[in-house]
Backbone:
């Protein structure tokens, strides 16, 4: 990866005066103009604001003022993160016309670091989906192969980085929505430990699972971006009262003696053999670099999907109750308040969102609560326990990020089949742990494969050390040539 395409390379070039921030922004806006009509990574491109911010960075540098670590670096932001004065849609018709009066904390932190937002990226409506086909504004295409989906729900953010629209972007991950699209698009994607990154200003999907995190072309860029957005925020009650972890300084520590467990349950049935083969090769590469690699059984991960599709819809049914035709966006007039709410929600929500609200309401209803929601919470505890047992013996765990490589647009019509995309990623959300996807080679058709490194809560440092070693050993693909 050349300096041109990494955030850290671009930041260094701007700081040294080799390139101006305006120059960098113009180049990225030109890339967007050329390919965005095909890719559709964005719901909104904020070209004028970006140019003005870049000019301000150049002026600051010219007058010798201090600038942040990402000064002048273009960044794309998922359209479920609030941006003051810029429409935030969650790719839903129900938020039509709503403009947030404040920035999400992560957006404030990006700006404080000097990064420049180039636009708001497309997603599956309210982050519910695995292909970005559930967007009310049309799907995003995978830059690696435009007949294929970029994954989801943060498909626009993954595609923006893969297409060279921005070297870094932000997504959110409730059940895999950063790691799965990262794997499909051949970029790095990180779901930080629950509580590490503020969700203030992230429009909630499932609050016990949601976490904001980075996309990047390199492990180092992802680490640098995570350091910028992480750290305590009093505005988010789930935020861990600790400063952001120092990760970048450990990226060259290597993996000598690092104990790595390959999760048996995520290497067999349901995983495409070519994906499993790349994961095994990455495990061998870690061993060759000095890590101690063994297989480990984490039995309860196989129940993750079932538990998630009760817990996440249950929380969503509550979180999405606020879209009532009164407080935000769309309002469809009707004779009574009740009819107005029904008409608004009927017109405003797409089919998958309605399905989740109904599933969740059912799972929470009197008479079914114990059998569904309560049972799912017990399974969640089992998953936490099985992970805890594995982390007594291993520093990090390894698995595929996704069971397959990117599929074609329209190929998966059945919601249950779509849900299977998340079998490898969901367990970490249920446990509140950290996990990330790193590109490692391709399938026979040249489509990227993502290897997932999982770590215990606050295990970001060993996770990134393993990720750096996997990246260093990854077979070169067309992208690097
Ligand atoms: N694909 C999963 C779902 O539809 C995960 C979504 C996410 O992480 N936001 O719920």
Residues:
């Amino acid at each position: 990866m050349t300096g041109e395409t990494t955030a850290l390379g671009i930041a260094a070039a701007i700081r040294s005066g080799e390139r101006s921030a305006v120059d960098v922004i113009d180049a990225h806006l030109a890339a967007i103009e050329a390919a965005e009509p095909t890719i559709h990574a964005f719901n909104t491109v904020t070209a004028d604001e970006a140019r003005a911010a870049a000019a301000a960075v150049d002026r600051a540098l010219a007058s010798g003022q201090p600038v942040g670590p990402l000064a002048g670096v273009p960044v794309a932001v998922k359209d479920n993160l609030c941006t003051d004065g810029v429409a935030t849609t969650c790719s839903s018709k129900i938020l039509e016309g709503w403009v947030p009066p404040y920035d999400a904390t992560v957006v404030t932190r990006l700006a404080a670091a000097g990064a420049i937002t180039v636009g708001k990226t497309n997603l599956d409506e309210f982050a519910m989906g695995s292909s970005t086909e559930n967007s009310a504004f049309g799907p995003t295409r995978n830059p690696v192969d435009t007949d294929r989906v970029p994954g989801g729900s943060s498909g626009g953010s993954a595609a923006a980085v893969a297409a060279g629209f921005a070297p870094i972007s932000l997504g959110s991950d409730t059940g895999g929505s950063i790691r799965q699209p990262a794997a499909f698009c051949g970029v790095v994607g990180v779901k930080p430990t629950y509580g590490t990154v503020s969700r203030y200003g992230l429009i909630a999907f499932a609050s016990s699972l949601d976490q904001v995190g980075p996309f990047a072309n390199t492990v180092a860029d992802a680490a640098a971006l995570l350091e910028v957005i992480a750290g305590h925020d009093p505005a988010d009650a789930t935020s861990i009262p600790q400063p952001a972890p120092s990760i970048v300084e450990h990226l060259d520590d290597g993996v000598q003696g690092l104990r790595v467990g390959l999760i048996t349950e995520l290497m067999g049935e349901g995983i495409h053999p070519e994906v499993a083969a790349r994961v095994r090769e990455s495990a061998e590469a870690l061993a060759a670099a000095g890590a101690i690699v063994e297989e480990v059984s984490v039995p309860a991960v196989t129940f993750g999907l079932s538990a998630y599709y009760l817990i996440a819809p249950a929380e969503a049914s509550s979180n999405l109750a606020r879209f009532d035709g009164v407080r935000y966006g769309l309002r469809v007039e009707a004779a009574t308040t009740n009819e107005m709410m029904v008409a608004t929600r009927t017109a405003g929500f797409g089919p998958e969102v309605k399905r989740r609200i109904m599933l969740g309401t059912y799972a929470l209803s009197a008479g079914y609560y114990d059998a569904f929601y309560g049972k799912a919470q017990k399974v969640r505890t089992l998953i936490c326990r099985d992970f805890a047992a594995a982390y007594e013996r291993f520093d990090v765990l390894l698995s595929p990020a996704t069971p397959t490589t990117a599929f074609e647009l329209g190929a998966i019509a059945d919601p249950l089949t779509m849900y299977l995309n998340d079998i490898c990623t969901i367990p970490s959300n249920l446990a509140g742990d950290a996990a990330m996807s790193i590109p490692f080679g391709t399938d026979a058709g040249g489509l990227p494969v993502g290897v997932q490194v999982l770590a215990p809560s606050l295990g970001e440092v060993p996770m990134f050390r393993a990720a750096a070693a996997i990246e260093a050993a990854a077979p070169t693909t067309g992208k690097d040539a």
